Amino acid sequence: MHKPLEQSIFGYVMKKIPFHVPYLAGDEIKYLNQVLDSGNFAGNGPFTKKAQSIISKKTRAPATLLTHSCTGALELSAMLLDIGPNDEVIVPSYTFVSTASAFLRNGAKVIFADIDEHTLMLDKTDVLEKITPNTKAIIPVNYAGLSSDLSNFIDICEDNDIYLIEDNAQGFGSESFGKPLGTHGVLGALSFHETKNIHCGLGGALLINQQDLFDRAENIWERGTNRTKMIKGIVDKYTWVDNGSSFYPTELQASFLVSQLKSMNDNINYRKKLCDAYDSRLSEFENSGSLRRQERENTEVWNFHAMVVIFNSPNLADKVREGLLENYIHAYIGYVPLHSSPMGVSLGWKFGDLPITDKVAPCILRLPLHSDMSVDDVDRVCDVIKKYLKEDL
User: Which tens digits make up the pLDDT trace of 229-243?
Assistant: First the structure.
């Protein structure tokens, strides 16, 4: 719920608009109570299987494994494909830390590549320059629920005999080149963190797009044992068969997610209404050259996860963000590039290594977008942006 109304610099009373409010579909308590009644809490139970089935149906992926997070799905990917010491993975620096850390913790060397200044995602040209005989995977990130340059990355991976793994944390429900995001590579990682369109507080999933990987993936997912095969009646007792970890969530989280998955279309339709309102207003500023929106060229179906704008300078982006905050509106700066972070520097990288990322990242602002907002709230956000853009002229 919104906090009490506040006074704005425009002189009238208005409510706070937070950057994000977690979505609630309505049946979460109903399904949670079913878990409580069942006494089956630990995970890999009926609701886990139901969630996996729904996700596979929506994405047309051959198999899905529910995970405790998108980070877990990426870590499972590294273990499943034996990406470790002496291997290199190419990732964008403009991303959440897990895109890199999931492979780093398995011993791989992380190679940061620059982004395209229009899509804000991996740049094909820079990726090509960074492929070496040790490159084992490219990890494109579908930022804001939009598609990265997947058709080109598919060709690059096939030509160089390397894996394509989609970090599709934000892209569940989006499609590109006739396929759902997360299904273009050999594996795709999803996030169901509370900041995503639909969620279970903290959760994720791994889309397994190559069927022959499923058997081993399931063992790794089940702590390195063949316990799930015992449950299916394939073996009469289970044992340790592979390296693994505890990757799946509880049945409580899975039941919460099932409620959200069933309401996914309603969620997307409402977010579309808000994004349409943003587009109508932001196009006015874009035409004047004050800002530009993230390019959506490769995305045929969008889940409307985030509204991302790029200002002409870091100073203007900060000025608008601070002006929004003065009006009780919270916007988010996006990512601090990983290559120039303390950890990135410890790995041998520095500011200036990726010129486009270094130039564009400080100019990016993500505007509030969630189901507690109305079209009037979008207008209010844009009115404040307009005020500070005028002052900058």
Answer: 998 899 999 999 999
pLDDT score at 4? 42
Number of domains comprising the chain = 2
pLDDT band at 14 (very low <50, low <70, confident <90, very high): confident
Question: What is the residue range of 169's domain?
Answer: 28-262
Q: How far apart are CA 20 and CA 115, in angstroms?
A: 26
Q: Are residues 258 and 279 in the same domain?
A: no
Q: 273: buried, middle or exposed (CB in 10 Å: 19+, 13-18, 0-12)?
A: middle
Pick from 212, 232, 262: which residue ends a domain? 262
**CA-wise closest residue to 200 among 120, 262, 134, 118:** 262
Higher pLDDT, 219 or 2: 219
211 vs 51, 63, 186, CA distance in Å? 19, 7, 9
Residue 321: CA atoms inside 13 Å, Cβ hemisphere, count? 21
Does residue 129 share a domain with residue 256? yes
Helix (H) or strand (E) holding 91: strand 88-92
Report yes or no: 102 and 167 within 8 Å, Cβ to Cβ: no
380: helix, coil or strand? helix
**Structural contact between residues 356 and 115, judged by C-beta atoms closer than 8 angstroms:** yes
Q: What does the DSSP 8-state code read for residue 123?
A: -
What are the residues whose beta carbons fall under 8 Å from the beta carbon of 318, sequence distance 6 or more? none
d(CA 89, CA 104): 9
| Residue found under tokens 């002229």 | 393
Quote the distance between the C-alpha of residue 146 and its chain's center: 10
Question: Hey, CA dihedral for 378, 279, 147, 290, is it positive or negative?
Answer: negative
| Rounded distance between C-alpha atoms, residue 202 and residue 296, angstroms | 28
Q: What is the pLDDT of residues 143-194, one digit of tens each?
A: 999 999 999 999 999 999 999 999 999 999 999 999 999 999 999 999 999 9
